[in-house]
Inverse folding.
């Protein structure tokens, strides 16, 4: 593969839409709000439900509880043990995916229209009546612990953990949502019940649906599925204070290729300059072959397989980050090229040609993202969580077009902080030493 | 480089169903240009976008001995200059048109693709057809891009003990076939790849009579045909295209066992692979039975392995079976078991073998078979949601000489599999003499 897309770090929902996506707002009889795109050409429904807060709602000392709880939602519910539940889902050919992140717990579902009622009944059990059977807890706990131990020896995960620890201080963002071996080992069934109550509540639900279903039917479905959840959950965590250590932090790890992450302060998606920053990032390191970082570090010098930068606006903090990997004897050069590009961009901004090319890419790729019912259902939820208007999609490209050369230059000067760009390097880099001071 | 029986999946809590499928009601058109280039069109008019893919029937297993990695290296080099385009202009043009492009190399094929707005298809065809014959490489291209693929190997393989382990397992599995050599290449041979290696591979294999064009999205077959004739149809066939013959496996008569140690290993596990029959043109029955066997034996929470090894007598954190039938030559059927913290690798391997043995006695649970078949039927509906994945399915099949008919019959072949077919396939495939068992271990001896 010629380019390995940077993890799934599309936190930023510069999410565009199929040229004409007809979104309806649906309010269920019970008062739940959802966005729906009716798509009757294929007899199935994709439903995406998210609960804001996610793993950041872990109680003090209980890191990993929400992650473990999430892993147990499909491991037995109501009068079904884990195996019975799995057999039921298999027989219906429905898929339920439960995933938790720093900002939300998501439930991504698809089911055939002919199996709709049975699928909803099954999912409802998982969401509302998970059993947390002791043997299921131990089974999933073992899987989570295995993952934690693997992360401790994975240079990418070590880098992530180190960087988050430096950036976010005491905030939940500072630690892995999986928890530590100690914290996970100590979790009790009561902790999982508390974690469930903290996250799965009606006051934080966002819903997107796409497929062969009418607004009326969706409303009834949602009341059946979610109507009995408690009204409120745990209070949302506070915003994080981002502290960027200047300079380089080296973590010694014996492996042939060093992995580097870099980070500085970012920008909110609600900021008027967010689109200018998006254009700026597209030119600097935005994940295509055309970025300056890709050109300088990979195409011209062959120092890496991939180098990327990305705006990472999360619910409770904004950062601007990037990554690169190079052999231990070459990572030093890669880091200094990145530092140079950061400075150059901060001082001079982009050229007219770069601006035009970036805009064409950002606007032209917009409709391509709407490539399937499940993807679109996810986008609908993302839009709601960002508080975007329901008619946002056809207006989004105009906002990109409106960005001027001066805007980008000004934002480059304000946003980019070449002196404050922190690097974490994991490996045995030659000629690179820790210089960071907090 | 796309093959990843990934550990990411191995440790994932979510285990999606993996029976790969085809579908009825697909709007698929197939034809062949006069120069031998096959064309498949998959229509989906729900969104105004299109994907073009060109698949070459040339992958790492077609490389000459000593030049491992050249198929993948060439893939990278196809983004450099041609007679008409500057180095990098291909991707830059795609990006300027709001599109995305990439490429991937496997054992049996190399493929290039772009996703763009539907009205840009002609431009994509003009560029893709241009680089089928007209690349112009410089020594600088070679030196820099070779560094890039070496870093790619560092990233994917050298930095990941599991990847290094799998490489050794594969090398032991294949005594005489190129599937034993990694797609990305052995490091010492990658370092020596040069311009001539790349050009030799290019001139031998890149021609319309060795390629398949797959276009999916908001397109009409007639207009695709017109464009394809205009851009690809004018390229002469290569009369010297060699027949696709590779050195085949001799009878495998000795069970192989290996231990791979690395201080970076956090989670030890046991992996077992057996040489297995692949999907063959007009003969997919055994492959279908093996596909079902993998699902029934180790396909997730409802599988036999999960029952025996994770629920009844919990010894494993994870246990699974894998089979990948899309292969030109002999493929493998794989088992893996990740032991719980207090279980040794020997105990885990013994438990896995005991589970296989009891499965051979118990046979297939008819209810489980029926549930899996209902999933296969459902998948035919779900898969209509992604024309690109349908396109992929046709491209990857035609690239290994399956026919359109084979692809379209596949769901029916799966549906027709009986419990007895599955048990027969299991009896045939579980031959220890054709197997490799590997233990991935930490540096210290803990057993």
């Amino acid at each position: 593969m010629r380019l390995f897309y940077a993890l799934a770090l599309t936190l930023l929902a510069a999410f565009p839409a199929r040229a004409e996506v007809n979104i309806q707002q649906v309010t269920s009889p019970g008062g739940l709000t959802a966005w729906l795109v009716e798509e009757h050409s294929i007899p199935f429904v994709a439903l995406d439900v998210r609960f804001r807060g996610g793993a950041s709602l872990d109680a003090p000392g209980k890191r990993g509880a929400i992650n473990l709880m999430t892993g147990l939602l499909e491991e037995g519910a109501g009068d079904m043990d884990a195996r019975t539940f799995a057999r039921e889902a298999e027989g219906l050919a429905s898929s339920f995916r439960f995933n938790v992140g720093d900002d939300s717990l998501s439930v991504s579902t698809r089911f055939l229209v002919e199996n709709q009622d049975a699928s909803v009944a099954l999912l409802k059990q998982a969401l509302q009546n998970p059993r947390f059977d002791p043997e299921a807890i131990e089974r999933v706990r073992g899987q989570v612990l295995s993952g934690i131990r693997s992360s401790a020896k994975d240079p990418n995960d070590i880098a992530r953990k180190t960087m988050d620890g430096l950036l976010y201080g005491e905030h939940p963002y500072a630690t892995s949502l999986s928890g530590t071996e100690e914290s996970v080992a100590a979790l009790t069934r009561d902790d999982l019940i508390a974690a469930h109550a903290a996250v799965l509540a009606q006051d934080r639900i966002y819903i997107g649906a796409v497929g062969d279903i009418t607004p009326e039917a969706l409303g009834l479905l949602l009341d059946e599925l979610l109507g009995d959840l408690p009204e409120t959950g745990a209070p949302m965590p506070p915003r994080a204070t981002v502290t960027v250590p200047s300079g380089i932090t080296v973590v010694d790890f014996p492996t042939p290729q060093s992995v580097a992450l870099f980070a500085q302060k970012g920008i909110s998606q609600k900021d008027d300059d967010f689109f200018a920053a998006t254009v700026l990032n597209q030119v600097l390191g935005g994940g295509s072959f055309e970025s300056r970082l890709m050109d300088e570090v990979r195409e011209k010098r062959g120092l890496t397989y991939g180098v990327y930068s990305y705006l990472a606006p999360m619910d409770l903090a904004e950062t601007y980050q990037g990554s690169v990997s190079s052999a231990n004897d070459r990572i030093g050069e890669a880091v200094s090229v990145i530092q140079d590009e950061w400075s150059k961009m901060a001082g001079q901004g982009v050229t007219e040609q770069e601006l035009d090319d970036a805009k064409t890419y950002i606007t032209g790729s917009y409709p391509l993202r709407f490539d399937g019912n499940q993807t679109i259902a996810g986008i609908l939820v993302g839009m709601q969580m960002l508080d975007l208007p329901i008619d946002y999609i056809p207006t989004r490209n105009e906002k990109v077009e409106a960005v001027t050369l001066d805007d980008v230059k000004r934002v480059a000067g304000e946003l980019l902080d070449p002196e404050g760009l922190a690097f974490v390097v994991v490996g045995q880099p030659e000629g690179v030493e820790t210089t960071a001071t907090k | 480089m796309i093959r990843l029986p990934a550990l990411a999946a191995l440790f994932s809590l979510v285990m999606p169903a993996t029976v790969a499928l085809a579908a009825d009601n697909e709007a698929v058109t197939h034809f062949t240009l006069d120069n031998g280039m096959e064309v498949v069109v998959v229509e989906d008019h729900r969104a105004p976008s299109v994907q073009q893919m060109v698949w070459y029937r040339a992958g790492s297993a077609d490389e000459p001995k000593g030049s491992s990695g050249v198929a993948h290296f060439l893939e990278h080099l196809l983004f450099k200059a041609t007679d008409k385009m500057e180095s990098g202009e291909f991707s830059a043009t795609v990006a300027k048109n709001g599109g995305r492009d990439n490429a991937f190399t496997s054992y049996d094929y190399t493929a290039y693709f772009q996703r763009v707005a539907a009205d840009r298809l002609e431009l994509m065809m003009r560029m893709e057809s241009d680089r089928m014959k007209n690349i112009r490489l410089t020594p600088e291209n070679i030196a820099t891009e070779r560094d890039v693929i070496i870093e790619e190997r560092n990233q994917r393989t050298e930095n990941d003990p599991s990847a290094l382990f799998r490489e050794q397992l594969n090398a032991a599995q294949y005594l005489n076939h190129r599937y034993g050599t990694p797609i990305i290449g052995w490091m010492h041979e990658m370092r020596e790849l040069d311009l001539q290696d790349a050009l030799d591979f290019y001139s031998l294999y890149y021609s319309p009579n060795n390629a398949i064009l797959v276009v999916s999205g908001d397109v009409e077959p007639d207009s695709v045909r017109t464009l394809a004739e205009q851009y690809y149809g004018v390229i002469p066939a290569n009369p010297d295209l060699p027949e696709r013959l590779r050195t085949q496996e001799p009878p495998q008569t000795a069970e192989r066992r290996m231990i791979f140690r690395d201080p970076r290993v956090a989670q030890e596990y046991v992996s077992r692979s057996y040489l297995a029959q692949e999907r063959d043109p007009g003969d997919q029955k055994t492959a279908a039975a093996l596909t079902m066997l993998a699902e029934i034996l180790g396909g997730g929470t409802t599988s036999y392995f999960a029952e025996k090894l994770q629920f009844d007598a919990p010894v494993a954190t994870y246990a699974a079976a894998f089979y990948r039938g899309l292969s030109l030559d002999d493929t493998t059927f794989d088992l893996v078991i990740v032991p719980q913290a207090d279980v040794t690798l020997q105990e885990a391997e013994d438990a896995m073998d005991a589970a296989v043995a009891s499965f051979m006695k118990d046979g297939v649970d008819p209810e489980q078979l029926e549930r899996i078949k209902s999933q296969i039927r459902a998948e035919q509906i779900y898969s209509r949601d992604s024309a690109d994945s349908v396109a992929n399915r046709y491209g990857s099949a035609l690239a290994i000489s399956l026919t359109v008919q084979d692809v379209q019959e596949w769901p029916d072949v799966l549906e027709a599999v009986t419990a007895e077919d599955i048990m027969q396939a299991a009896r045939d495939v579980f031959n220890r003499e054709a197997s490799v068992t590997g233990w991935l271990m930490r540096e210290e001896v803990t057993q």
In short: Chain A touches chain B through 82 residues (CB under 8 Å). Residues 4-18 of chain A have pLDDT under 50 and may be disordered. The longest strand of chain A covers residues 318-327.
